Amino acid sequence: MAYRTIIEPFRIHSVAPLRMTTEAQRREAVKAAGYNLFGLHSDDVLIDLLTDSGTGAMSRDQWAAIQHGDESYAGSPSFEIFRSAVQELFPFAHVIPTHQGRAAEKILFTALGGTGRVIPSNTHFDTTRANIEYSGAEAVDLVIAEGRDPVSRHPFKGNMDTARLDAFLTQNAGRVPVVMLTLTNNSGGGQPVSLENIRETSAVCHRHGVPLFLDACRFAENAWFIREREPGQGEREVSDIVRDMARLADGMTMSAKKDPMGNIGGWLALNDDALAEQCRALLILTEGFPTYGGLAGRDLEALAQGLKEVVDHDYLRYRIRSTAYLGEALAKAGIPVLQPIGGHAVYLDAKAFLPHIPPLQYPGQALAVALYEAGGVRGCEIGTVMFGRHPDGSETPATMELVRLAIPRRTYTQSHIDYVIEVCGEVARRAPTLSGYRISHEPKQLRHFTARFEPLA
Ligand SMILES: *Cc1c(COP(=O)(O)O)cnc(C)c1O
């Protein structure tokens, strides 16, 4: 008997309270935060879907692993345990622990970036792009055309446009130090990249003598999609698919706050000995000694255990299905969501949701604020606020205006998600009355984190 309901494959072991708030309290709180949801106190948030980064629940076995942490400055056995867990899935010669993904990016692009260089990806994540641009290099997105179309049902919308990549590498010969591939494609809707596309991208890169690095934050979710959607992959172990993905690349950057189930952590892994030596020297400058990087021994232990748990098929089936549950319910209620539903998040299409608000009045921001005011649900704008400002000071609309509802791992139950569905329905009813925003203050880099807004009208 195959039952319809896919249950959470865990029992709750420890709980944290949610503080109930009224709409009036939330209107006050968000106004005081300059209408920037990053500025809220999290006590004022009921269901926090701002990010799935570092917000998941660790398992009993991860908490137990924390007790094994060895805090020796050099040569800690916790590092060996961490490194072998990483290499079990990603057999790169060098594993360099960092405090999060962006620290790995900073080190890699300090070594490889610089003025005059260009670094293509399917789509760069915001911190990746910012670290590339900070080095003086240019970040270029070459995702397939379907990846930029919110209604296309392509099964692998994260795929690299390999024909464009090939032409790009010819035109920019000598200027491209590395090609990145983001798995899954976070900024493009949490969409997966097929194994076939990773293989083609790898072949194109290597034909041009350029290394390929994976931004592999959601490697397990990506591998699950490959298993479910790619011909010939349906019977395979996810860990085998992950190893195939890794063997096609020359290195990786990683945020361990995503699929490795950590609350903090990251790493840089690679095969090139000389580059690894250069990266370790940079690591010592800002992160720490190479056997702990930016982490405590206990964090390394928790991540090693998390890496074992995330490739479990029961977990991944539940994870991908529960994200789809939210997305399908919203679509059924007539709410425009990016299709197909991604792995870690549901993306509301704010352009379709609020067609009366022009891009430079930030429809995604307007929608995100409305969801918070109506129900205390915190999502994240991924649109013109995040991507509209360029290093030369100009501002243009982003390709898509999205609000991401990211699902923390193993944290919320189905009734929490049913509540989110209700809140989205209420905001849909209010949509015609919502207005746009203007930015009253913004920093030079990564403005979405600290900008302040004022409502128009
Ligand atoms: C989160 C993320 C990063 C950055 O990692 P942090 O740990 O937040 O610094 C890089 N790339 C992608 C795709 C991400 O999702």
UniProtKB/TrEMBL annotation:
Record-level Gene Ontology MF annotations: carbon-carbon lyase activity
Necessary cofactors: pyridoxal 5'-phosphate
A GO biological-process term: aromatic amino acid metabolic process
Residue positions, PTM N6-(pyridoxal phosphate)lysine: K258
Keyword Metal-binding listed: no
Domain Aromatic amino acid beta-eliminating lyase/threonine aldolase: 48-421
Keyword entries, A-Z: Lyase, Pyridoxal phosphate
PANTHER family (alphabetical): BETA-ELIMINATING LYASE-LIKE PROTEIN-RELATED (PTHR32325), TRYPTOPHANASE (PTHR32325:SF4)
Oligomeric form and interacting partners: Homotetramer.
Protein family membership: Belongs to the beta-eliminating lyase family.
NCBIfam families: PRK13238.1 (NF009709)
Protein name per UniProt: Tryptophanase
